[in-house]
C-alpha cells in the first residue's frame, strides 16, 4: 500500500513527492520519507458522497466526515512499520496533491502540513486531516480560479520542472473537479534556520540577468514562519559573483518542535535583527539552488532547512510567476504619506483599505478593496478572488500567499511594520507592488452601497 519515496511518480504520489523522489535519487539532501499514494486516498473516500456533503454542509461538513472515518487496519500496520524504518522519530506530514506544484499552479499553502508528529496514532490523525484539507475553502477556491480544466496538447512538451506536462494532464484531478491527494511523510528536520529560495526568476537593478540571480528568504527555526508570512524574513539577493543585496528582517518569533507538535517562541532582541545565515551558508544555498534547477530543467521555488549546519531540501517546484526586484524612488504628494515595504507582487492599484485581523472580518471585504492584514496567512488567499491588492505588516515575497498573489496578478506590498498605526479602515490607498510603496491618501474612501 505505502511506497518508498524513491518509487514516487506523478501518477501515484503527485508532483511534490515525485519531484523530491527524483532529487533524492540524484543524490540531493532530501530527508528520508515514504508516501501514502493517491490510490489509497481515492479508495478511502470512494464510499463517501462528496457532492452531497458539500451541498448540505459545505467544506466543514465534508472535512468532518473524512476525519471521522477509521483507517483500515492494514494501513495502520503499514504506517507503524514505515515509521519504525525511519527510526520512530518525529515526522512531517505533507500534502502532495495532483493539483499542486505544476507548471500552471503552485497551490502554495493551500493544503495542510503538520510538523513534529510523533507516533503511529498521531500520524494517522494527521493523515486524515491532510486528506480533508483538500476540501478547505481556500483549496477549493484556488482550484476553481487558478487551475486550467486540462493541459492542452500544445503544452505537452513543456517542462514542468522535472515532471512531464503529459503526466500532469493525465493525473486524476488535473483540473478543478476531481482532485486526489497523496501524503508525504518525511523525517522531521529540527531546523536552526529555514526558508525559501528562488532560482533564476528575477533580474536585479545592478544589471544581473534573471538567470544569474538567486533570492533567498530565511528566518530562525522551522520554515513555517517564512512560508506563512508570520515574520519579515532576512532576504539575500545573490549573483554568481557574490551577494548583491541583503535586507535584514524583523524575525520577532520562531517556530520549533515542542513536546507535542510545534511551539512559537519570541526571538531575543539582538537576534531579531541579526542575519540568520552566514556568508558560507548563503553561497551553499545558491549553489544548491542552481544544481536543483539544472537537474529539473527549470527555475525552482525551493524550501530548505539547516540543521546543525547541514542543508536539507524539503520541497522544489516550478516558479509560476517571476519576481520583480526594484528599488523604491517614489516621492509623496504634499499631503500624502508613503509607506515603504517589500515589493511582493507587481502592479499598481487604488482602492479603499479593508483592515482584516482574522476570519471574522472576511464578510466585510468587497470587490475592489485593498486587503490590509497583519500577515499573509495562506488561509486568507480565499479573499484573493475579491480584493484588488494586498498590504501586510509582516511577511516576505517568497511566502505562500505572496506566490499566489503573483499567480493571480494581484499587486502586493509586504512587511510594513508601521502599517497598523498608519492605515485606517476605509482610507484610500494606492499601492505599487513593483517598487513596494503604499500611498495613504488624506481623505477616507466611503463604501459605495
Automatic annotation (TrEMBL):
- State the Gene Ontology terms under molecular function: ATP binding; kinase activity
Domain (Pyruvate phosphate dikinase AMP/ATP-binding) spans 13-321
InterPro entries found in the cross-reference section: ATP_grasp_subdomain_1 (IPR013815), PEP-util_enz_mobile_dom (IPR008279), PEP_Utilizing_Enz (IPR051549), Phosphohistidine_dom_sf (IPR036637), PPDK_AMP/ATP-bd (IPR002192)
Its keywords, alphabetically, are: Kinase, Pyruvate, Transferase
Return the Pfam families for the record.
PEP-utilizers, PPDK_N
Domain PEP-utilising enzyme mobile intervals: 368-436
Descriptive protein name: Pyruvate,water dikinase
Q: Which organism does this record belong to? A: Kribbella voronezhensis
Amino acid at each position: 500500500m505505502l511506497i518508498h519515496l524513491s518509487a514516487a511518480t506523478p501518477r501515484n504520489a503527485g508532483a511534490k513527492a515525485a519531484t523530491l523522489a527524483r532529487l533524492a535519487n540524484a543524490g540531493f539532501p532530501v530527508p528520508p520519507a515514504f508516501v501514502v499514494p493517491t490510490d489509497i486516498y481515492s479508495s478511502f473516500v470512494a464510499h463517501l458522497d462528496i457532492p452531497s456533503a458539500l451541498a448540505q454542509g459545505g467544506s466543514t461538513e465534508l472535512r468532518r466526515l473524512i476525519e471521522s472515518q477509521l483507517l483500515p487496519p492494514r494501513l495502520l500496520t503499514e504506517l507503524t512499520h514505515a515509521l519504525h524504518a525511519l527510526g520512530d522519530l518525529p515526522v512531517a506530514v505533507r500534502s502532495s496533491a495532483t493539483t499542486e506544484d505544476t507548471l500552471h499552479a503552485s497551490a502554495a499553502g493551500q493544503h495542510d502540513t503538520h510538523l513534529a508528529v510523533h507516533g503511529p496514532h498521531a500520524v494517522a490523525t494527521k493523515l486524515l486531516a491532510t486528506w480533508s484539507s483538500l476540501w478547505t475553502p481556500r483549496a477549493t477556491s484556488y482550484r476553481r480560479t487558478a487551475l486550467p480544466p486540462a493541459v492542452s496538447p500544445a503544452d505537452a512538451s513543456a517542462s514542468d520542472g522535472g515532471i512531464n506536462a503529459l503526466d500532469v494532464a493525465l493525473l486524476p484531478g488535473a483540473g478543478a473537479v476531481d482532485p486526489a491527494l497523496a501524503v508525504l511523510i518525511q523525517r522531521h528536520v529540527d531546523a536552526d534556520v529555514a526558508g525559501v529560495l528562488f532560482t533564476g526568476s528575477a533580474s536585479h537593478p545592478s544589471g544581473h540577468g534573471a538567470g544569474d540571480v538567486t533570492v533567498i528568504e530565511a528566518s530562525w527555526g522551522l520554515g513555517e514562519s517564512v512560508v506563512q508570512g508570520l515574520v519579515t524574513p532576512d532576504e539575500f539577493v545573490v549573483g554568481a559573483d557574490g551577494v548583491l543585496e541583503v535586507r535584514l528582517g524583523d524575525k520577532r518569533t520562531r517556530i520549533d518542535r515542542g513536546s507535542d507538535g510545534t511551539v512559537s517562541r519570541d526571538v531575543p532582541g539582538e537576534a531579531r535583527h541579526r542575519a540568520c545565515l552566514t556568508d558560507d551558508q548563503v553561497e551553499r544555498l545558491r549553489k544548491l539552488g542552481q544544481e536543483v534547477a539544472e537537474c529539473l530543467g527549470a527555475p525552482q521555488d525551493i524550501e530548505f532547512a539547516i540543521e546543525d549546519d547541514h542543508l536539507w531540501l524539503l520541497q522544489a517546484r516550478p516558479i509560476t510567476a517571476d519576481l520583480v526586484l526594484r528599488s523604491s524612488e517614489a516621492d509623496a504628494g504634499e499631503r500624502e504619506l508613503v509607506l515603504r515595504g517589500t515589493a511582493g507582487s507587481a502592479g499598481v492599484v487604488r482602492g479603499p483599505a479593508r483592515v482584516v485581523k482574522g476570519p471574522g472580518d472576511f464578510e466585510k471585504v468587497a470587490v475592489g478593496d485593498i486587503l490590509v492584514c497583519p500577515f499573509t496567512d495562506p488561509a486568507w488567499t480565499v479573499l484573493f478572488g475579491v480584493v484588488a491588492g494586498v498590504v501586510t505588516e509582516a511577511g516576505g515575497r517568497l511566502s505562500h500567499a505572496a506566490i499566489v498573489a503573483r499567480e493571480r496578478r494581484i499587486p502586493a506590498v509586504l512587511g510594513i511594520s508601521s502599517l497598523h498605526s498608519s492605515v485606517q479602515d476605509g482610507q484610500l490607498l494606492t499601492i505599487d507592488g513593483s517598487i513596494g510603496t503604499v500611498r495613504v491618501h488624506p481623505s477616507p474612501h466611503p463604501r459605495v452601497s
